[in-house]
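Form 7-S
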Amino acid sequence: MRSMTPRLLLVALAATSVAAGCGGSSTDEGEDPCRPPSLRVEVEEDEPATPGGRIEVVGSDFAEGCLRDDGDPGTIEPLEKVRLFVEQDGDRISVAQVDAAGDDLGFRVTVGVPAGLTPGRARVVALASDESDGDPIARAAFAVAER
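Output:
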């Protein structure tokens, strides 16, 4: 028998992201010392997200400026007005706007899964601009179930 206690299942961890304020800087070896923002999606139970349901979006390292891994703290401020979209098949649907805060320069927000999503894969993308068609600074994929 299945337990009735909800469990959070980590569905996806962002694998691709670009730091908002430090793209283009490099060391002598040609590597960017800036740490990019990360994004992940969490859903309840052991199931994919359901259209019309809820998911939790968790972000960290959303900095205005360069969050460095090389020992130099750089100049960092929390990134404000991060726009979150759910994206599937080339369409982007706005689901939230958040401000990064705290020691992890992050956020945690519960958003609705758009009702029009089809079963398969979708992703949450984070943008640092007011435009819905800009380049994401972080993204995280998740599975979508049938209703």
